[in-house]
Amino acid sequence: MKADEIAQRLKEAREAYYNSETSLMSDGEFDGLEEQLRNLDAGHIYFSTVGTQASGEKIIHKIPMLSMGKAKTTGEAQKWVEKLKLDEKTSLLVEPKIDGLSATCLYSHGRLVHMATRGDGNIGQDVSHIAPYLKDVMEEISFTDQEVEIRGELYLPKNNIYDTGGRPLRNNCVGIINRKDDRSALHHVRFAAYQMVSPNPQVLPSTEHKKLQLLQQQGFHSVETQLIQSFEELELCYREYLDEKRDRWLYETDGLILMVNDCSLHEEIDSRWIVDHHHHYALALKPPSASAKTALVSVEWKVSRLGSLIPVAVFERIKLGGANIERASLHNGQFAKELQLLPGDTMVIERANDVIPYVRENLSRKDRKLEGFIHPLIPRSCPVCQSSLEEQGVHIKCSNLLCPERQIQQMLYWVRMSDMEQIAEGTLRQLYKANKIRKIQDLYNLKKDDFIGLEGFGEKKITNYLEQTTQSRSMTPQELISKLGIPLVQKKSLIKLGIESLQDFYDFQDDSYVIGQNILQWKSQSENMELLEQLLSVIQLKEQTAISKGEICMTGKGPMGRKEISQLLEEQGYTVVSSVTKETVLLLTDNPLGNSTKLQKAKKYDVTISSYDSFLKNP
Questions:
Q1: How much is the pTM?
Q2: Which tens digits make up the pLDDT trace of 552-561?
Q3: Of 210, 464, 567, 588, which residue is most buried, by most CB within 10 angstroms?
């Protein structure tokens, strides 16, 4: 699988995880795909985001809500501790990692200003409307009138009386929060506060433990914590979690969080490494996966936008990690073949970290020989259009470029890449069934009269659709090319290849790099070039900004948020990158005389170093 394909799968899984009631893959599969992507392209744009862009009204987090690194064993956690090189007297705060929806409450002058979800870490969804329903969210705080964010996790308790329908508690929680009409179920939702941050950190206690104590004094519902100072204490703490606390706690958890208790050390620790996806002073220690045996009933096959058939195992219902489960992805045709699945086979289903299920193995195939084995559950033709199938790598693909499901998935991909958040999958399927759309360009050709007589299309829904398509028409050539789904091709890679205009794209012939090879392969397929011509008939191309002045990197704390500084730099023609390389032309820092890893690399590669203030005054 190519890097961009992996990144898209991860992005879609994140979107489902954070903004819907369903999940697309297990935590184990998600972590494995992230590791695979990191090995293929450690600098991929995927790693500069957290979560996913939230739907609805947007809230920009002044202090980004980053995630944290992961450890699967106490041994891995100990290596992390050793890497930090802490003083023997420095303690770690251990707290549960609640499996819920991360959120933050902003207070100013002692009063609640807004409540927002984490979203992609920089921009979240405004959910202030739910605050009055939550008994754990205080309208006022009394310890400071400065701006303070109280962060925590929204979750459904294990002992609640809400009818979950057999789905995981987290999925139900997300569904309740996103509900637009009936909000009565919100009183089942709890908010567990676990952190405080502020632009003026001096107004906060000096340790994480004292912060939690202060939150409890202010009336917030907080989590159970423990302070440790040795590896022996860490192992004991983890064992107690697995043996007793994991079941006793009334919130679902997917591990423990280890955090350096002394807040004054956080910035210094982060300065040693690149901080993009997560902070380095905290770590998530994950639990082993829960598993159970069940019998296979059937395998369903779904068609992707590229024509690949994605198999899904349907099995006898089991209860695993508190949820009723009867379906799990089989990833691709090759994996399904290797499992040698037959109806009635005994399979091991696993939920890594008690989140999303996947098939670990088929116990019934032990006595079978793969050679010559006939797979009765592997389709002989496309399950949607009955066209012939082709094998390409690990995938089984439909040969029909006009397969209805393939067309729908292509349109859905474009809609998501173009941030048309108001156009749901159900809307596309309804329009396709009504013969209103068949290809991406049709999305832009619909007029108000085309919706007359369609069930469920009221005035507001029609207006939202037309506004979304109108807003997404205008884009630069680089933005258009980056949305075509060419593996590894994003705006940054186009800049590096010198592709600024469509003519540059047409003329490009350099196969020296994998990205270039992918572009040439994509252009060699006539159906792809036809797609581009169709898009050009409805898209309004706007002027492309000049080719980048070069790569620029940042370290330390600037005079404003990273997102704001990045925007200024990009407007000036720079490409903002997360790490210093030989191609970097400038490193911005709050302390040019410091000794962070980025500064050391900049000196090694003879990269120009400048303070934020000096550069932003005279860019």
A1: 0.52
A2: 888 877 888 7
A3: 588
pLDDT (0 to 100) of residue 76: 94
CATH 3.40.50.10190 residue ranges in the chain?
A: 550-617
Contact 356, 26 (CB under 8 A): yes
The pLDDT assigned to 43 comes to 56
Task: Select from 3.40.50.1110, 3.40.50.10190, 3.40.718.10, 3.10.25.10 the CATH code of 550-617.
Answer: 3.40.50.10190
CATH code, residues 289-400: 2.40.50.140
Quick: pLDDT tens for 132-173: 899 999 999 999 999 999 999 999 999 888 887 667 788 889
Annotate 36-67 with b (16+ C-beta within 10 A) or e (fewer).
ebbebbeebebbbbbbbbbbbeebebbebbbe
Is domain 64-285 in CATH 3.30.470.20, yes or no?
A: no
Please provide residue 397's backbone torsions phi and psi, each rounded to the nearest 5 degrees. -125, 145
d(CA 462, CA 446): 10
pLDDT at 259: 96
CA distance 421 to 437: 18
Q: Position 350: which residue type?
A: E
Give the span between the Cα atoms of 4 and 367, in whole angstroms: 38
Please identify every stretch of the chain with a pLDDT value under 50, giving residue numbers as ranges: 18-22, 48-56
Q: Find all residues with CB under 8 Å of 81, minimum gap 6, and list them.
A: 92, 231, 234, 258
- Characterize the bridge pairing of strands 111-117 and 290-303: unpaired
* Long-range interactions of 380-383: CB distance < 8 A, separation 24+: 382/303, 382/309, 383/300, 383/301, 383/303, 383/309
The DSSP line for 444-506 is HH--GGGGTT-TT--HHHHHHHHHHHHHTSEE-HHHHHHTS--TT--HHHHHHTT--SHHHHH
368 close to 338: Cβ distance less than 8 angstroms: no
**Spatial CA neighbour of 118 closest among 154, 164, 171, 158:** 154
- The whole-number pLDDT of residue 18 equals 47
Residue with tokens 């096959």: 301
Query: What is the CATH topology of the domain spanning 404-472?
Result: DNA polymerase; domain 1 (1.10.150)
Burial of 344 (0-12, 13-18, 19+ CB in 10 A): exposed
